[in-house]
Amino acid sequence: MLIVSVAITSVASNAMHKRYVASGIGLVDNFARQNLLTVIYNNLEQASSTSNNILGLPLIREVAIYDANKTELFNSGDHTDTLNRRHWLTPPKTAVLAHESDKNWHFISPIYSLPANDDELVYQSNNNQELIGYAYLAMDKGEYHSIRTMLFAVTCGTASALAFILLVVLRKRLKILSKPILDIAGIMNKAQDSELSGLRAPINGSSEAVDIAIAFNRLMDALADRQEMLNTQKRALSDKVYEQLQTELHLREHRHYLNSIIDSVFDAIVITNEVGNIIQVNESTGSTLGYRKDDIENVHISNILPNISNAADMQRYAQSSLVEIPGKHRNGATVFLSLHIVEVNQYDNTVFVCTMRDITLQREYENQLNRTATQIARYADELKSKNKELDSFAYIASHDLKAPLRAISNLSSWVEEDLDVSDNPEAKEHLSLLRKRVVRMEEMINGILQYSRAGRANTEIATVNVNELLHEITGMLSPPPGLTIDIENDMPTFDCPKVLLTQVFSNLISNAIKYHDRENGKIEISVKDKADEYEFCVADDGPGIDPRYHETIFDIFQTLQARDEIESTGIGLAVVNKIIREQRGVIRIDSDIGSGARFFFTWPKSYP
After folding, report:
1. Alpha-carbon distance 92 to 100, whole Å?
2. 0.85 exceeded by the pTM?
3. Do the Cβ atoms of 513 and 522 come closer than 8 Å?
């Protein structure tokens, strides 16, 4: 039975609570509306008048007005249980119950101000309105507590059926008692979107409802008067704002016109009057000539352009489209300027607009470029002459060196025939060794010629299919039957000096074949596509190369095995290194004893 009584009391209390809260929200909303002028004009008399009216209502204990920063502008009533600011850290957008204590309900309503149309000012929130303050109202909970206590006592002292019937009766009675307040709240809501003059609360119901309706109607009368006054002031203020906006617009257009002429370009701009006195400059004049605006205005232009001394000079230069002229920097140094002068006649006044650009560095660069180009041309001619002399010398030297070698080879053959050394194996071996040394010497001479001409023999650019090129090279080299050569399928096709690339691949592949130490083996040729170049790799599974010799093998005449064991001039890798360096590439080796050798070299994708 007690549980039923408590439940019935709770339901009824919640219903009463909602009605009191709705009434409080409507009252604080109305109080916020009538104090719009209080916040705008800091009119405390207005606040006092409206607060007296609303404090005359039953249950209202305290009212206050705050600005947008939550600074208190006005407060009236009982302050024993006022609202703490921590209860409204987040500003509400509409009228709300901010806090509820044991004694009071505390309501907050925002105050907005922005012209919504030509006839009225509204304070309710929308996307274009400006928040200017807050209204606060405290409503006493004593009556609510009394009714709730009475209801609980009645329900506990009667049977459940009688308690239920009584609860129904009380709810109906409460609805009847609160109907005038809800009607007033509905009128308040209608007042948000319509004229205030025709909205009044009916005077009927209980004595408390009649008192509230009378007070509300007085508030609506005062608010209507304030709204009319505010609309009048709004129209006057709008006219003044419009005039100020028009004036500001004209000033802004004028400033834009001047800035578009003076400050919209990188070059220095100097404006003079008809006799040459400077009347205005832009900011770039400081970086070009070292002068600030205050330093150079009212100074004659001859101080910065010595070649111009009067108006006739200005007019003469104005007839030219663009001239180069010396100028005087603030520090006394001479700078070279590209000058363009325009004569402007307006309102019987003549001004000269001088546009200047510092070309001192440009002239220095041009002079330096001309000197460098002349020097490069001279070096190129000298290099061409030296190369021609070197080719001639190498050809003559090789011819002169080969002639004695051929004679030695012939003489050894004649000696062998004349002496009949068949019965003397030692002599026969010595003569054979002599002829081999002659052949090796000829190959070394040919290698020197090849090295001297490496990279210069034929640099004609052609479209090269690297896959086809490698198959041609391997076909000419004829590797042993047990040695296979694998060529990656994704070899590129690009424009390059075909002869030079052929020399590089031929030397690397022939070395891999020549120095392989087993009957069976493999040579792999692959490529990696990098940003501006290709990186090719020629790898074998031969004996490998000791890391101690990774640098020296690219030197001319360097071999790792005795020439009597493997016939070699030691020229091939030196030629490869020279060609690759001249093509802006690099070559490196990754190898160790017994692990084969991998030669990597880069080759540019394009040529200027």
Report:
1. 16
2. no
3. no
